[in-house]
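tl;dr need the bound structure. longer version: we got a ligand (phosphoenolpyruvate) that a collaborator sent over and nobodys looked at where it sits. i said id run it. heres the input, straight from their email, havent touched it
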Amino acid sequence: MSERRPLISGNWKMHHNHFEAIQAVQKLSYVLSANDYDAVDVSLHPPFTDLRSVQTVLESDEIPIALGAQHCHWEEKGAFTGEVSAGMLAKLNVSLVIVGHSERREVFGETDDNVNRKVKAVLANGMTPIMCCGETLDEREAGQARDKVERQVLEGLAGLKGDQVAGLVVAYEPIWAIGTGKTATPEDAQEMCATVRNAVRGSWGTEAADSVRIQYGGSVKPVNAPDLMRQSDIDGALVGGASLDPDEFARIIAYRLVG
Ligand code: PEP
């Protein structure tokens, strides 16, 4: 089985203007140590307006944090007011792009087909998608969580080759746990992340399933990160609220040292 390096990603959503973003990155790099970067990959996903500033700080201070984005359009250019293409992100040295976050799906109506086009655009521009999936509380209570997540994985990644799937990241984020303070139990999170991996195995084979990195997301905090990260099919975390505070985010990144 291949060794999967944990990836802890901070999704800032629509928080931090570019001045605040610079301060947050500088503070985070101050509290993180070489030990943290040795054991874990870290990415930050600021709003579009902060990307250039954050890129400049990361590169000029040689901070080994990957620059990420929260979203992109699938077309390279055109009459899509308000949108940003994958190619534009790649030019800013963005290396990871969140695709199909539940807020994009639920608030902006993104479909699995939209997500699939975006995943392909991100890959075509040499970046790595973090493709999100997850069920609502109603779907969980109706016993539909596994079917929903399997469908999102199969449709979101449709048409990709095994080696492309092997290199990407899937974030399992139960919608009822995002920003609510309710976290899935480590056992439930493990079961759903195993569902994602089995779906990958069924369509793209064992090598892709063993290599694809699967993050858990949904109210991850310093106190629950160690138990979640101990699960065999959880390879990292997608962190919203707690990534806005550099001290809190750093404590999540240092999850190995706790408990
Ligand atoms: C997220 O934004 O993907 C997320 C999981 O948010 P939070 O950690 O705030 O629940």
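gonna send this back to them w/ a short note. Residues 11, 13, 173, 178-179, 217-220, 238-242 surround phosphoenolpyruvate (CB under 6 Å).
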